[in-house]
Amino acid sequence: GAKRAHGTYQALAEDPDIDVIYVATPHPMHRPDSLLCMSAGKAVLCEKPITVNAAECAELIAAARGKPIFLMEGMWTRFLPAIVKLRELLAKGVIGEPRMVTADFGFRGGWDPKSRTLDPSYAGGGLLDVGCYVVALAYMVLGRPTRATGAAHLGETKVDEQAAVVLEHPGGGLSLLSCAVRTNTPWEARIDGTEGRIRVPMFWCADELHLEADGKPVETIRAPREGHGFSYEASEVGRCLRKGLYESEVMPLDESLHIMQTLDELRRQFGLTYPMERSP
Fold first, then answer.
1. 48 belongs to the catalytic site
2. CA 56 to CA 60: how far, in whole Å?
3. At 140, is the secondary structure helix, strand, or coil?
């Protein structure tokens, strides 16, 4: 019943009436599909993780800046009202100086070795699928880390079924992060500061915050999202295009690249590579 449909991605990219394309194909297809769309002059919102590794991400950024054309990683959590409110509270210093981020995102998916989350040919595993959320949150709060250390359990299909990560940030900040695709975790984030803390239940799709400023009762701050929540990142793309911007200052391309570099380093420590990375 769609008013307009295309039989190929090429036909979609060449449609003159389309301004922006949301690339939501499996991880290994993000690079070629985004390049296809940008080469046809279409702005791109590319689902997280923006690519499989930092080299691919750098290639996308070079292509976008070379035209130039708009490109943004679809880290939808960053644009939710609750996370926008979190940034506002931190900027106001309501918990003093943020010193530590603790966050987890793990679920127990069914056992299907050919599934997107377990198959190496799809760049499966917890780190790229859900670990990028916790790493991106740490970047948002404490900045680019100076060191990343992690350990993972590689399961039968040789992807990371669960992983634990410590990030060291400038000024002594620390992030304690975990992710999984075969283990259920609480889906909670906590930012501890010198004068209190903020808890964010189900942070990746958050709709409320719990502020625990020292010496004051716990305050629940509700900021519900409308619909499924993906409209907020789409609105950010529209805002940027109307202002003539080629990237978002909320989710800048250099940060996407730095996040991918951190994920690369963690996978190196895990001993995790994917078949498409070993191709000539």
1. yes
2. 6
3. helix
What is the Cα–Cα distance from 201 to 222, expressed in whole angstroms? 11
Dihedral of the alpha carbons of 95, 166, 267, 75, in degrees to the nearest 10: -10
Q: Which residue has the tokens 């409110």?
A: 85
Site of tokens 């070629």: 32
Question: CA 155 to CA 118: how far, in whole Å?
Answer: 9
- Tell me which of 3, 42, 48, 243 is the catalytic residue: 48
Q: Quote the pTM value.
A: 0.97
| pLDDT score of 173 | 98
Q: How far apart are CA 239 and CA 1, in angstroms?
A: 29
Measured CA to CA, the distance from residue 86 to residue 83 in angstroms comes to 5
Could you tell me which of 116, 107, 119 has the C-alpha nearest to residue 204?
A: 107
Quick count: other Cβ atoms within 10 Å of Cβ 251?
Answer: 24
Q: pLDDT for 112-123, tens place per residue?
A: 999 999 999 999
Q: How confident is the model at residue 278 (pLDDT cuts 50, 70, 90)?
A: low
pLDDT digits (tens, 9 = 90+) for 149-199: 999 999 999 999 999 999 999 999 999 999 999 999 999 999 999 999 999
